[in-house]
Amino acid sequence: MMKIVQLVYSSRMNIEPGGLTRLATFRQIHQTAVARNKLSNVSGFLVFTRNNFIQVLEGSQVDVQATFDRIKTDNRHTDFNIIDTLHCHSRAFPNWLMGAMHDDIVVQEAMLNAGISGNADLTRLSAKQIIAIFSVLSNRTEGVAA
pLDDT tens digit string along 90-126? Predict the structure, then answer.
């Protein structure tokens, strides 16, 4: 059985003056992630809140690292912070090429359902807390299934 790596990171959205809106940028990033993750055998979940992306990438070490290295070259992201890298035997999001959520209210509800204050800053939570919240979101969100 293949070992699965879950890379949890945050970054800030970088919008160029006169460029796309935040929502349009988020949707564009999500569409690109779905297409590339299908080819890379990477799954995961992406949330945009408070001008931050928080993402879980999961797959083999090689595939996840290559995906993250590619994301780091995307000028729509800045201020990367790796929250943690976890090793496990199964994916948390096996049915998602890349699930996505950008609604702050829904994210806050999921945080409360996971036993975390809805006012907490996602970028300051542990990887396990983030995965728990994203698991709640994955049951009620948009995205493209694998």
Answer: 999 988 888 888 877 888 888 888 888 878 888 899 9
Sheet containing strand 52-59, edge to edge, reads 77-88, 4-13, 52-59, 43-49, 96-101, 142-145
Q: Which of 118, 120, 116, 97 is nearest to 106 (CA)?
A: 118
Check the CA dihedral 141-101-31-95 and report its sign.
negative
Pick the closest to residue 55 from 22, 101, 104 (CA basis).
Answer: 101
| Listed residue (5, 140, 125) closest to 65, CA to CA | 5
- Residue 94: which H helix or E strand, with range? none
Q: Which two structure tokens, joined as six digits, stand for 126?
A: 């542990």
Whether the model clears a pTM of 0.85, i.e. scores above it, the answer is yes
Residue 135 bridge partners (DSSP): none
- In residues, how long is the chain? 146
Cα–Cα distance between 39 and 44 in angstroms, integer?
Answer: 14
How many CB atoms are located within 10 Å of the residue 49 CB? 18
> Positive or negative, the Cα torsion across 114, 117, 121, 127?
negative
